[in-house]
Amino acid sequence: MNVNQHVVLLDTESVNRQEVNQHWMESGVIIIDLMTTYISREVVLESGTIIYPNTYLLAHTTIGKNCVLGPNSFIQDSKIGDNCEIRFSVIEQTVIENNVSVGPFAHLRKGTHLAEGVHMGNFGEVKNSYLGPGVKMGHFSYLGDATVGKNTNIGAGTITCNYDGVNKNPTHIGDNVFIGSDTMLVAPVNVGNNAKTGAGSVVTHDIPDDSLAYGVPARVRVKE
Q1: Has 139 been annotated as catalytic?
Q2: What pTM was estimated for this model as a whole?
């Protein structure tokens, strides 16, 4: 087709989109609404995945088996494993391993890596961070330039204060940690294995293994 007018461009795009969607339907992918699903030609999908309306899969994205994507999700340049669920979320340049749930209304930015079994709930944001296996980040939290160990719980409203006005600073959180709601982690800072923070704590110094920190600023005491 000669594309010399905007209306012809729209028609051409529609034909291209239907061709791509039809290919994936024939390959075992379930697309609920062909008219509102946008899949780039570079995208690779495995069978058994279900795509709900208003979902965009763009650039060099790969999707594993038996995932549930959408509705209203935007996934670009990302790798998604098997048995993942992503709803009402924006995901960019991210790696997601198997059995991960994201959303609704989550934002995963460049450099994010969610390991096996991570749950990231509503209104959370992660940037340039690794969340280890089994991490739970329920809602209303931001992790930037952070490393989180396995089976750690990130309480609602937790923030890594990673930017000091000049540099982006790292936060390291160990295994089996419990971060209480509304904890502010002022980077650079380290939280040891099996540590806990009380709700509303402002953590400005490292927390050793097996310790509890609470207060503003947070003070540390060894758990009994």
Answers
A1: yes
A2: 0.94
Residue in the structure block whose two tokens are 């729209």: 10
Q: Which of the following is catalytic: 23, 139, 172, 205?
A: 139
Are the beta carbons of 171 and 160 closer than 8 angstroms?
yes
| Tens digit of each residue's pLDDT (9 = 90 or more) over 85-126 | 999 999 999 999 999 999 999 999 999 999 999 999 999 999
**For 27-38, what is each residue's pLDDT tens digit?**
999 999 999 999
How many angstroms from the chain centroid is the CA of residue 19?
30
Kindly report the three-state secondary structure assignment for every residue of 127-195.
ECCEECCCCEECCCCEEECEEECCCCEECCCCEEECECCCCECCEEECCCCEECCCCEEECCEEECCCC
Instruction: Report phi then psi at 184, rounded to 5.
Output: -105, 120
CA distance 49 to 66: 4
Domains of the chain, CATH where assigned: 1-106 (2.160.10.10), 128-219 (2.160.10.10)
Contact 169, 145 (CB under 8 A): yes
